[in-house]
């Protein structure tokens, strides 16, 4: 497809002058009939990637979307822009469905939004060659590695078999590397080109504070924010209500929001917030999905989120207009213990616990938090961000290149097949079953770090993970393995600075709580 045609279509139907980074490349790939996986933060411009090709492609485009509530908005928006679109989901009457089928027969529809549960209807009358493109929105829902697994998504893998010559476009705002690979595997698009947009939201400040006297800290935070809109995320419904009550008593227009409220009440609160009638929403994570309010100036996490994807998505609701906005996370060991309990009852316990661990490491970080957050999404920031509490108030550092070299070469010798505990045991020359069984005493890195305590090593390794030299393979029993960046330390003598570890930080949650 010629570039001028793409640009003309973009202008005519969407009113934009140019494509955002990646949009053009993705669209061109679709016209080459290739499969694509798009990872872009919320607000990055994913919809254009399939809506624009849909207008130009000869046959219909299927859009699989999990959110029935949002489907109607999207379809109304498209129709208003002159793009014939419709949706199919379980909330519709049979007659409405029949009317849509007839329109499809007459080729009067370019985009058809379908809930995964309703795919069987489509299956009845569409065949390969009669579908130009299959877009799968919120594709991370297919993966139990992701944070929003939906069973109905798991059947989507059959689409590629059913429509082998139709390109598939999978889109998501939240996918770590393990989830990305899992999405492609499950959708049967192993060769999909992966397009990863930057997740960096420079206008969001990042702050973490100890979760003590939280309400006093929040009152302090709100002192110069009398008019600004914000969200406070809490773990339990009860907390949202208590907090909203206390804020109301202080004269704030605050409201609690959670899944226990009636549907009508919830949409009223949502509207009031969007129209600035309510200033503060104290909410569980039920709040926010699909809310398009550009001037949210701050987000507070009263409790720790259970993983970094959720955290990133929730703070990402602030500052969509690009103006400076603040985020504050309260770090509490009681929360960690509570979340550990939730995670250990989950089906994929290992994954959830490992993700919680990353969340905890982020909260306890000693180096630029944005670097840590972005490295979780596979991005490497060259410079510290200057807009997080650590950058503004850095801890004491020492030159830890030798320590880093020892740790990295040990992981290298272990070929990325052991978790953090075994790596430390090898470094410290421990004697145990795993070491003996694998003959790790023979490794050149065995016992090269016995001058450093077990817990210090643990802290240093966490720092190396946070610095982006090491990653945790969630899909392989949490084994540690080296990243590309590690080569700089091992082979190019890159200097590594590590933070001095305070005794306080070496205590376990239980010890600290005591
Ligand atoms: P996502 O689905 O990734 O969350 P959207 O597709 O809803 O993002 O797009 C986010 C916003 O950016 C929308 O208001 C959209 O109209 C706008 N947008 C998308 N592409 C462009 C572009 N090329 N130029 C200007 N604005 C764009
Ligand atoms: Zn920083």
From TrEMBL:
EC number: 5.6.2.4
Domain Helicase C-terminal: 217-367
Catalysed reaction, written as an equation: Couples ATP hydrolysis with the unwinding of duplex DNA by translocating in the 3'-5' direction
Record GO cellular component, one term: bacterial nucleoid
GO BP term, example: DNA recombination
Keywords from the named record: ATP-binding, DNA damage, DNA recombination, DNA repair, DNA-binding, Helicase, Hydrolase, Isomerase, Metal-binding, Nucleotide-binding, Zinc
Helicase ATP-binding domain residues: 27-193
Protein species of origin: Christiangramia echinicola
Protein name per Swiss-Prot or TrEMBL: DNA helicase RecQ
Names of required cofactors: Mg(2+); Zn(2+)
Membership in a protein family: Belongs to the helicase family. RecQ subfamily.
A GO molecular function held by the record: DNA binding
């Amino acid at each position: 497809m010629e570039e001028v045609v793409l640009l003309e279509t973009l202008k005519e139907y969407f009113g934009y002058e140019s494509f955002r980074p990646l949009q053009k490349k993705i669209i061109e790939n679709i016209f080459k009939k290739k499969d694509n996986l798009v990872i872009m933060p919320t607000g990055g411009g994913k919809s254009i990637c399939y809506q624009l090709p849909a207008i130009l492609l000869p046959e219909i485009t299927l859009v699989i979307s999990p959110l029935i509530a949002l489907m109607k908005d999207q379809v109304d928006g498209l129709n208003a822009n002159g793009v014939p679109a419709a949706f199919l989901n379980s909330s519709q009457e049979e007659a409405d469905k029949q009317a849509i089928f007839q329109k499809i027969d007459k080729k009067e529809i370019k985009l058809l939004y379908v809930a995964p549960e309703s795919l069987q209807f489509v299956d009845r009358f569409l065949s390969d060659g009669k579908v130009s493109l299959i877009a799968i929105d919120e594709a991370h829902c297919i993966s139990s590695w992701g944070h929003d697994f939906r069973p109905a998504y798991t059947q989507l893998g059959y689409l590629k078999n059913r429509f082998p010559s139709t390109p598939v476009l999978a889109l998501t705002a939240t996918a770590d590397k393990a989830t990305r690979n899992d999405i492609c595997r499950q959708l049967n698009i192993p060769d999909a080109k992966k397009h990863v947009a930057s997740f960096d939201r420079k206008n969001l400040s990042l702050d973490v504070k100890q979760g003590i006297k939280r309400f006093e800290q929040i009152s302090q935070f709100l002192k110069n924010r009398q008019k600004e809109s914000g969200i406070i995320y809490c773990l339990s419904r009860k907390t949202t209500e208590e907090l909203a009550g206390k804020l109301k008593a202080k004269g704030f227009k605050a409201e609690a929001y959670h899944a226990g409220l009636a549907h009508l009440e919830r949409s009223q609160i949502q509207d009031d917030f969007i129209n600035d009638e309510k200033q503060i929403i104290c909410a569980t994570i039920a709040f926010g999905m699909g809310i398009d309010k550009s001037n949210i100036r701050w987000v507070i996490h009263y409790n720790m989120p259970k993983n970094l994807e959720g955290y990133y998505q929730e703070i990402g609701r602030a500052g969509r207009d690009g103006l400076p906005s603040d985020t504050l996370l309260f770090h509490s060991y009681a929360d960690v213990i509570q979340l550990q309990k939730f995670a250990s009852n989950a089906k994929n316990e290992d994954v959830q616990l490992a993700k919680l661990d990353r969340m905890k490491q982020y909260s306890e970080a000693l180096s630029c938090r944005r670097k840590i957050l972005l490295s979780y999404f596979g991005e490497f920031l060259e410079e510290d961000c200057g807009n997080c509490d650590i950058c503004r108030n850095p801890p004491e550092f020492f030159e830890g290149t030798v320590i880093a070299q020892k740790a990295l070469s040990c992981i290298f010798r272990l070929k990325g097949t052991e978790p953090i505990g075994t790596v430390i045991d090898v470094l410290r020359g421990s004697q145990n079953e795993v070491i003996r069984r694998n003959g790790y005493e023979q490794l050149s890195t065995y016992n090269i770090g016995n001058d450093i305590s077990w817990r210090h090593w643990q802290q240093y390794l966490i720092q190396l993970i946070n610095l982006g030299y090491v990653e945790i393979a969630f899909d392989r029993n949490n084994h540690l393995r080296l990243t590309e960046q590690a080569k700089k330390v091992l082979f190019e003598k890159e200097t590594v600075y590590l933070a001095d570890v305070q005794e306080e930080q070496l205590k376990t949650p239980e010890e600290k709580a005591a």
